[in-house]
Amino acid sequence: MTNTANGNPNGSGPSTPAEIEADIVRQREELADTVSALQAKLDVKAHARARAASLRQRVTTDSGRPRPVVVAGAVGAAALAGLIVWRRLV
């Protein structure tokens, strides 16, 4: 196995104890970064919270009240659903 990532031009890997220890520290840091990235990617609760916050921000005003367009859409959808139910009953 050749290793030129540590800057050793002949690809034989680290040769002194200090180089070996520095390589181990670098690999641990890379592994920790990888694990942290995977953990963040797989955190379903955090993704759900972020989506809910984004949606909440889109449908409410700065004061926390629902945007008029959202209210009008909800009223329109409810009226349409009521009309469909009423037409099926008649």
How is this structure best summarized?
This protein is mainly α.
Task: Summarize the helices and strands and which ones pair or pack.
Blueprint: H1 17-41, H2 44-59, H3 68-89
> What is the makeup of the main sheet?
none
Low-confidence stretches: none
Number of helices: 3
Secondary-structure element pattern, one letter each: HHH
Strand content: under 5%
Basic shape: rod-shaped
Note the gap between the termini.
80 Å
Mean pLDDT: 87
Work out the helicity level. Answer: over 70%
Instruction: Indicate the radius of gyration in whole angstroms.
Output: 29 Å
Output the structural class: mainly alpha
InterPro entries: DUF3618 (IPR022062)
Protein name: DUF3618 domain-containing protein
Keywords: Membrane, Transmembrane, Transmembrane helix
Transmembrane segments: 69-86
Written overview of the protein:
It is a single chain. This protein is an all-alpha fold. The chain has a domain at 44-89. Helices cover 70% and strands 0% of the residues. The protein is built from 3 helices and no strands. It has helices at 17-41, 44-59, 68-89. It is rod-shaped, with a radius of gyration of 29 Å. The model has no long low-confidence stretch (mean pLDDT 87). The chain crosses the membrane at residues 69-86. This is DUF3618 domain-containing protein. It holds the Pfam family DUF3618. Keywords: Membrane, Transmembrane, Transmembrane helix.
